[in-house]
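Worked Example 4.2. Read the sequence first, then its structure tokens.
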Amino acid sequence: MSTTSKPQDNSKFGHLPLSTSGPQETTLTGNALLRTPYFNKGSAFTKEERDTFKLHSLLPSNMQTLDEQVRRAYAQYSSRPNDLAKNTFMASLKEQNHVLYYKLILDHLKEMFPVIYTPTEGDAIAEYSTLFRRSEGCFLNIDDADRIEDDIKQWGNPEDIDVIVVSDGQQILGIGDQGVGAILISVAKLVIYTLCAGIHPSRTLPVVLDCGTDNKELLDDDLYLGLPKGRVQGERYDDFVDKFVSACRKRYPKAYIHFEDFGLNNARRILDKYTPEIACFNDDVQGTGCVTLAAIMAAFKVSGVNWDEARFVMFGSGSAGTGIADQIKDAIAQNTGKSVEEAGRQIWCVDKPGLLLQGKKNELTPAQLPYARADKEWEGKEHGDLLSVIKEVKPHVLIGTSTKPGAFTQDAIREMAKHVERPVIFPLSNPTRLHEAKPQDLYDWTDGKALVATGSPFPPVKHNGKEYEISECNNSVTFPGIGLGAILSRTRLMTPALLVAAVKALASAAPVVNNSGAGLLPDVENVREISVQIAKSVIKKAIEDDLAQEKDIPTNDDDLEEWIREQMWNAEYRPLKLIKEHTANAHAKGEAGTASGHREAKFDH
């Protein structure tokens, strides 16, 4: 996927603070300029820039293009012996040159995505303390909770940060409690925001909330870099999270907060607490739900199932499963006029003990409780396994988030296909080895009638001489566009209505809907264009619901798209303009995205 070059000046929207056309101002020269990754061009600095910024003796004489630099970097990347070594190489490149780093990934997106993100990023997180070279991001620990406000101030002035990704590391990418290594998932999510939606990389803040860890391997490791004690929970933990959110709102009142990989008992609870107060998002709960809902919408276009009659079975009812159920419930309510409670009656949730029942409410999480069925409904009926529930419910849609490989058995799938014409089946657990079923089996067991999307990439399958593309429910086609819309509109809240608007925009881009293929979701290679459309829908809904705080947002669709694109960061070198220090902001001084000693330093007198 390539980026599109822009004119040097945009006469209509070039005045915007986030405009990406025209020159960038800086006070830096010489080595200071080369050490600033969002200004550094390495061998691509022009002769004029080498004159102006005193770079001649600091660089080899042959000036090269960005494409030539990418070729060299790709050869270096390809020479690394394994994916973890490639991940480490990319982290080093990012510290040197933002444009080259992102351009390299964009040119090789499908190949590099699993290296810079899941699954390889999980390996890097697990090895964080072993591989550590240089810190990146903001480290807050629960033993110094009273210092949070001062610590947060070091990362910018109030207008400098657009998005904050924060994790406490309790439930990382299917590999569990990783303690302070969670800083890398916050970093990786922000990379995805930039790649997929053009969020300015120097205007982001990755944070880890170090509350200790219950991972014995980490606690027994002398090299572990986090708090070497068990994970703190309860009132002290809640107070720590609250101090963090309050400090962010005070220092960066316009920043959008993204919660990532919090534990099962905290993720939904924290999201529910802050959603009525601030613009926030949890990708594990809402992102997975949004992308899955978009695939369901596309599948219903094919199957002709109506929202008021659709029956859903969720197999696996943790953060992801209940998050998806919540998105489905909101969509049913919006599409049918039913109350949210009534809409929830169309969803049956199954977990380890079987169907969730009200009689076991003491064993259920707050997120599971709304989906517990009355015990009397199931008196005398089998409900302890998936096949029994399918026989009784006759679902149109079966979704797996159980991490139980092979759980969608041939008997269960064939039973489902007896009762509905086009069964919609999404085995979403990842990585691939944890999938509830293989797409090939789903097509074979339903005689090619199944409508399938998965949680990890799968190659196309063949059935009766036809080839079928398998859509991946990849959150990266969803959350970046939602974040872009939130940031540009400065929405006060991220409401269910805004999320449904985003989902509809994503669903409308599905190949099966626009007659460009059979996929239930668009390909990740088209993600930047998809993000524009999602952002546009989010912004329009935010304006309609009186949530947008940004002024002078265009109302004409064409102008709104240009307004969005003008503010999306691109992996291309822009001209640099040398300015005097007294007129410069933090970005021009090379202080953006770093804790500047000049900003809040305390001097001895």
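Now turn to a second chain, presented in exactly the same format:
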Amino acid sequence: MVRLRRLLLLPALLFSSLAMYGQNAPVVIQAEAGTIRDAATAPAAITFNTEAGTGFLRVVGDFVTLNGSTQSPNADNRVVSYTITFPGAGTYELYARVRVGAGGFNDDSYYVPNSFGTRSAFETNRWVNANGLAGGGYTTSTDIVSSAGTASTNNVWKWVKMSAFGGSNFTVPASGLTQTFEIGSRENGLDIDKFVFGASGVFFTVANLDNGQQGSVTPPPPPFNPPGPPIATGKPKFLGGVYSNPQKVNFGKYFNQVVSENGGKWGSVEGTRNVMNWTDLDSAYARAKRQNIPFRMHVLIWGNQQPSWIENLPPAEQLAEIKEWFAAVAQRYPDVAFLEVVNEPTHDAPVKQSPTDQGSGNYIEALGGKGTTGWDWVITSFQLARQYFPNTQLMLNDYSVENTTAGAQQYLNIINLLRQRNLIDVVGIQGHAFSTQPTPAASLTANLNLIASAGLPIYITELDIDGLQDEVQLAEYQRVFPLFWEHPAVKGITLWGYRPGHWRTAQGAYLAYENGAERAALKWLRDYVQRTDISTITTSPLASSSFCVGSTLNVPFTVAGSGTANRTFTAQLSDATGSFTAPTAIGSVTASAAGNYSIAATLPATVAPGTLYRIRVVSTTPSVFGNANSTNLTLKALPTATLSGTTAICAGSSAALSVALTGTAPWSLTYTDGTTPVTVTGITTSHYTFSVSPASTTTYSLTAVSDGSCSGSAISGQAVVTVNPLPTPGLAVTPANDVYTGGVPTTLYVGYGPQSVTLTATGGTSYSWSPAAGLSNAAIANPVFTASQPGVYRYVVTVTNEFGCSATKEVTLTVLDVRCSNNPNSDKVLVCQSGKVICVSVNAVPAHLKKDGNGLGSCTPEATSTTASVVGDAQGSTFAAYPNPFTERTVVRFRAVATAHVQLQVYNQLGQLVATLYQGVAEAGRDYDTTLEGRSLTEGVYTCRLVSGGKVETKRLVLVK
């Protein structure tokens, strides 16, 4: 069906004027025939070329931004002028044959004038941005070149009707058939072959324009003046519209919500620093106030159409300017229903992508950059918005988040970051045709459901649906619009334009012609919205933001729109993160009409405590999701105490029983072993530990627990403390052979007899010896000790039984060096015979030992007596020397019975003092080892004198060399 974009004459007048149009043949202008206004400026922005016999104009310089604006050429070397003589007076429409470069939508725009005549390169109000040429156009010879087209392939020549891009028609008076026509370049990569001016009201095919032929007249749809009221009047959801000059016509007869198109973007308002242009935004706000409909502010933070002057400021200064911008909007527009705080965060953050990237703002770091969350800059933006707009519903807005699961999930992640901080109230999804048209309905619904799991109202903010033919657009409206309108979480839809001048005019997304005539999709839309019964649910604020699990509460809500008999409304509790992906039903009520209701709900006692819960109300038949309550809820657990399990201890020790407590401090508890209760109050930690020392196996039980906010009591179990017996260790010392030495098994003689003994411990299941040095294996029951150096060796074995209980046993081994020759190959040893020490061969030792009173080593009794050497007597100190006799050195050991001052000295046979081995305080029960070096002493007998606590003891030391 042929569609007319702009009609200035009534049909009768149109047909009566066909003769005039027949005379006014289309006027063809070769693009390369123009004159560049300032061709001398280098580098060149526009060149003239020839290819395969076709001359054309090529844009080689990309657009220039001036004061944040790219709405005019902004340079004289980017303006081309033509002088045109028309065959007759009349109104003409402009067509162009263009070729979009490989960059597609980055190579597809230029500026056309809105009238004939010369104009400054900087007059934004006299230039029209013809953008989006990559998305349409015509190449088939029989195609009528109207407003859109399907030739979206790059690098092909195609015809585009430029008057459809808001460039208006061009009027040629009879007195001025010669006119000046100018164009301005914008994006490099665009080629223009020729322009054609065709009489208004005449339709031209591609062949007509290629050959400069006159077109034909087809009657357009008749003008239409919609009667109103707005399409969604009386419905619980609004159908809104974008507000701009092309879209203002009949706005109040179609729409009951308003948003400014470009007027609210920071670059439009403050293109020059501290110079504010509120005109367009004021107009949209005034429309909202005049019509008493919601006003949405679009937009505070974005990565596009931002002031160029802010890009290179220091971050601190950028942040100050951002706050000024927020404050200025808040002051000027106090009644904003929905505020787009951040637009397109996943696609167009305020960061400069390249040196030629214009209008990004480049202030992402001033807002905290990506930070730890990856979206700190978004969080900061909403924190500022909450500060400056405390009573406004804050919105996040983005496109292409409904067509892929990955996009929806990424968007939901940002939403949840904001929701968990109580920073976001509503969610915006743009809903453009390039996102919805290629996406199956089931996928769109699934992704909407995923985003709706945040529990926030969803608004479709920038809906447009393409359609070059009426039937194509109608079918897509019938497929997509009900999916949004009837979705249980969607609360309103805004069309991003409905008349020519629409940003997707080239794709046929407009719903009405310039004369008001409605396309088929608009007629269907009006009928569908008005006849479709829908309802909404609004969850009202709760009485508190903090509840105990298991408690009851009232969930108030309001139902608007159509009612259904015996309809069930259910209150749902989110999970601990605030998500409604898998909600929990906590109560329901039945109602049949719109109105205010309340659900008596019970929070499950099994719900985990947390601080991010939310509650919403939903219904079935029809399915509607209410918004969640507006702030996060804290759910606190009822107090519980867990005392369970079996604790085993060893006799004589204690058990530490830990009580795990949940709830809000302080707690108090009482526990008992069945006889005496013990009460503890003022517990502030989540675990309380108490110590018990039963003499036999005992059962302990917890009888009560309470806390300061969620009062209650619980008996959660019992703990059995089992008392296990200690082991009874045994210890035996067995020599490696049975050679008779005349001594005890714990005394070994270097030079004679067995040099190893086996230490055998009993009474347990595992054994550990300390120290390990000198033993063959310190982790077995029967390690072997081998004598190598003289001395006293004390070993302690820890015996552990099958219950894990342990006890110790101690043994002391004495090693005496009885060798009496300096020749290492000699086998002579010392023998005490009849009170005198003699040096004899080892072969002679058995004979000597058979005689009473004889023994190995020194004749001093304490040197050969284990009891004298280690234990001492009950009335004095331990006082021993080993080896004795000695050849190089001897170790003198003493142990004081009581703590006292001790003096230990050695005298020679003349009574002369030769060494002081110890002088000072000695502690009771502690062993002290000292060494007497014999190298500097002469062979002979010495006296060691110990003075302790007024008692004097002496030992005789024999030095043999």
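Notes for the reader: The domain at 536-636 is CATH 2.60.40.10 (Immunoglobulin-like). Confidence is low (pLDDT under 50) at residues 1-23, 861-877.
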